[in-house]
Amino acid sequence: MISPPRSVLGRIIDDLGSTLVEVVAGEPDPSRPVGGVLIHDPLDEPSGIPDPLVLGVGVYGAGEVAALVERSAALGAAAVIVRSPVEVDGRLKEAVAESGVPVLGLTPGASWAPISALLRSLLAVEEAGEAHTAGAPLAGDLFALANATAALLDGPVTVEDRNGRVLAFSSRQDEGDEARIATILERQVPYDKLRMLEERGAFHELYSSDRPVYLDTIVDKPRVAIGIRAGGEILGSIWVVVREPLTEDRDRSLMEAAKVAALHLLGRRAGEDVGGRLRADLLAKVLEGGSGAADAAARLGLSAHPACVLALAVTGQFSGPDRVAVAQRACQALTLHLSAVHPQAATAQLDEIVYAILPAASDEAALRVAQTFLERIGGRVSAVIGLGRTAARPAELRRSRTEADRALRVLRAGRSPLRAARLTDVWVPSLLLEVADRVSVEDDLSGAAVTRLRAYDAQHGTALTETLSAWLDTFGDVIAAAAAVHVHPNTFRYRLKRLAEVAGLDLSDPEARFEAMLHLRLTRPGG
Length: 527
Known about the structure:
alpha+beta, Udp-n-acetylmuramoylalanyl-d-glutamate--2,6- Diaminopimelate Ligase, Chain: A, domain 1, Beta-Lactamase, five-stranded antiparallel sheet, 17 strands, PucR_C-HTH_dom, CdaR-like_regulators, PucR family transcriptional regulator, CdaR_GGDEF
């Protein structure tokens, strides 16, 4: 029996690219097999992973790296990855030469956790492809699988993900009922049908069994469905419109089809994960600037055009995981929208923020794109977008990202009614937020006039702070200020005199007025 070939080192290095790793010692063999990822722990017993890539987390200095190379050689390691910059001295050169284990340097600023996940995903993609060629009946794509299954079972087939989105379908869909036809047209099971299936326990039955499930009372025409599984995880399902329950032979055929579909979906997901993570790492490198930014921009195809940075955040009351999930949907929608505007636009989600680099001739053009996107998603996803100025060269995109972040912060804080804004559109509230940060850290405003007013209002149930704010907002126009707080002008004059006494505030002093107005803008009530 001949074992299928595993992933090779050359492919891994090519996929990561010089933006993420560089060879700092030794000559990597491109054909060297790689069997997995091993995180170095000097206190742990070495794993039995064959031909591992060893990640030297926390390993610094030429002596420590040399010791890691020597230990990794005993494990049959394909290569060692440590954080750059790497000091290469005589001992390290000797260790690499004797062991044949090359040392790769991970770019500064990159996180070990996503790099580890990225490497595992790259290996998963290779393994999925090898499984296909090692005897799995994975000819064609999911549509070919759907058509083959339909021929075997004599009924139209759909392959769906866990959310009811149609990934592939067979021919002969006209033999289905109205629900099936609507599903194909929308590429999505109608929401009312999904809810009905959920309420009647169809999904519970489907996902709790590893055999086909016959459903004849939920939709017009009976269905047979089976869950698509990988290990203990449900990836999706296959649905067949039938006239009657399947025979034992046809049950087995559908079970085999589900196994093949699982390989397809795993390969697709692994590829999407790898592409998404690699794109996110490249985009992050461009946004951070530095020596690798130009190379990362070139790999993203962003070197030939002026471009600006967009930063999107979802708004509303969400928990941490929910916010990330909503941000993922927003990222997908923004990616689709920007790809129609410019094919070289790059989009990636970094934590809760979705960043995009959009080739654009001007800030105004980019702002119109952002506004159009927000109009199209309407209320389905509540989001705001901050924009930086257009950068003529990739090296200037770091500044554009900084401006986008500053504008986004204003919008997320509700300091502007805009949903999309450049920094120039919200410069004053952005400046006030930054001054407020400094005040909260460095200064004590406990003795300030506005602080005294707020304390007095809280103790006596008065509205002197509101009176001062209205008077300042109307440039000292008592009539207009009184109307704004809905009191008689004489009452307002009395309150004005009283607040000056309580706060020790000279309202005739321009500096005192400016200080009070700034304090009111910087801090909210109770702040």
